[in-house]
Each structure stands twice: as structure tokens, then as C-alpha cells.
Amino acid sequence: MTHPAPIRRDHLSTALRLAASGVPVLPLRAGKVPFGNCPACAKNVCGGRPNMKTPGPCTCPNPCHGWAAAITDPGVINLPTWAWREAAGVAYHPGGAGLTVVDLDNAEAITWARASLPATRTVPTTRGEHWLYQGAMQSANAVRPGVDIKSSMQYARWLGPGTGTITALPDVVRALTVKEPSTVRPAAVTVPALAGSGGCPHRTPMYLDRGIAMAEQRITGAREVVHATVYRTFLAVLSKHGRCGCLTDVHIARLFTAAQAKGESPRHCTDAWTNALTTLGL
């Protein structure tokens, strides 16, 4: 008779202890990655986590949906016993705990941090260190060589409490995720006019300029899900102005520049624009 593997009580007890202190947790399988979606959630048939913005359980009790499976409810944490039998570690959602982890992946990155960042609590990793700050922010990978930012919508491995006094998230860390707008102008996009259409049907050129300005403001004001905001804004602009031929390279460049100022790459901008064109059949 084959008996199931015992639950890793050390991992489960660590998870419950962290959850009791308000830190959302989830089990990790071998390779430091989350468990895949269960059959009930495979291929996103469950609809996914609501907007993938906040952590919490799915309708099933399994640790699905990556970082968004991180929770603090001990009753739900205890339910997926199969996951804790197979767990190779514990992860947590830093942003959900009001924390930011500066993940330093090598000695050079640590040397840079010691010279550039305020001292805070540090946790040794297999290759470097985690520096923990109080405060959440946008996550980003490779903000500089060997440095990742793990906070909102991201998970980090729990490797112990670390040493030192945790300090407030400084502006110098927040600035690491702010990218300078690309100076490369987007490729010209030709928008076909409807058959039989003549000049621009809008009342004045000011109407278009005001619409582009509002679109720029919508992108600039996005606080999260920037990809989706950029796409929806491009879609709105093209649905209004895409068929009359009044959009110029200057207008498109303004939209791309606003998106790149929020961290979007030129490629992502081009993809979003192309997808919007395709959606509208232009």
C-alpha cells in the first residue's frame, strides 16, 4: 500500500506564522516557482483572480494563480494538503504585506546597494541578499544589473527574518522603476479611411488635440495595469479618429511617449497599437 508523502510541517508552520503576522503566503514547488493551476482553474476557465490586482483564494481552495494565491487565512492555507506535501519552500507577497524587496543577485549588486541605498533589514540568499523596505511599490525586473524589485503583484521566497532594522521605502528605490521615455519615434502608422469618406468630419483640429491630450492624461494617471490602460486608450483613440485619416505621426508619437514614460517599451507600444487596429478592423 502506498502512503502519501507527509506534509512538510516546517513549511506549513512557517506559512501559518507569517500569515498570523499579516504576511500573505503561498507554497512553492521545486525550482522556486508557484504551483500550476488546479484542474478547475486550468486554462483560466475559472475566470482568473479578479483583475489580478489583489491576493486571495480562488473559488477553489488550491494555491492557484501565482502571487495572487498568497493569503493570510489559516483555514484556507491548511486546505491544500497535497501542495504542502510537495512544497519545496514558502513564498510571500511583499506588496500585500506593505513591503518592497530589493533582490540583489550577486556581489556587484550588493556593493552597489551598500553605496547607493539606505541601510535596512537584509536577508541572505543563495547568491546575494534581499533588502527589505517598509512600503509597497510597482515591481520590476532587471532595473539594473543583478537587481530586481519585488513588491506589488510579485512573490518572493521566505528565507528568514533577516537582520537589521527595516526602514521606510526611499525615493531612490522607487526611482529604479521609472524609465526615461524613449527618444525613438514610433514607426509611421497609416490608418485607412472609410470608403467614400472625404475630409476629417470633426469640427475643428482642436477637437482632435483635446482628445489626444485626454488620452495622454489617462495613460499618465494609470497607477497599475498600465499595459491594459495603454491598450484601452489606444483603442478609444482609434475608434474615434482612426477612420477619418486625421491622426498624424505627431499625434501617435505623443501617445507612445506618454506610455513609455509609464514604463512601456517601444515594442509594447507598437504591439498595443497594432492589436487595437486589428480589433477595430483597420
Description:
The protein contains 9 helices and 10 strands. By secondary structure, it is α+β, with helices and mostly antiparallel strands. The longest helix is centred in the last third of the chain and has 16 residues, at 205-220. It starts with 8 loop residues before the first helix and ends with a helix. The model is unreliable at 50-57 and 181-198 (pLDDT under 50).
Sheet with most strands: 6 strands, mixed
Global morphology:
globular
Q: Secondary-structure element sequence? A: HEEHHEEHEEEEEEHHHHH
Helix content: 25-40%
Helix and strand content put the structural class at alpha+beta
The total of beta strands comes to 10
- The portion of residues forming beta strands comes to 5-15%
Distance between the termini: 64 Å
Gyration radius (Cα, Å) is 23 Å
Low-pLDDT stretches are: 50-57, 181-198
Task: Provide the residue-averaged pLDDT.
Answer: 81
Distinct helical segment count:
9
Note the topology.
Elements: H1 9-20, E1 25-29, E2 33-34, H2 74-78, H3 81-86, E3 89-92, E4 99-104, H4 107-116, E5 121-124, E6 129-134, E7 140-144, E8 147-150, E9 156-157, E10 167-168, H5 171-174, H6 205-220, H7 226-241, H8 249-261, H9 266-280
Parallel strand pairs: 6-10
Antiparallel strand pairs: 1-2, 1-3, 3-9, 4-6, 4-8, 5-6, 7-8
Summarize the structure.
By secondary structure, the protein is of the alpha+beta class. The protein is 34% helix and 14% strand.
Features:
282 residues; alpha+beta; 6-stranded mixed β-sheet; 4-stranded antiparallel β-sheet; globular
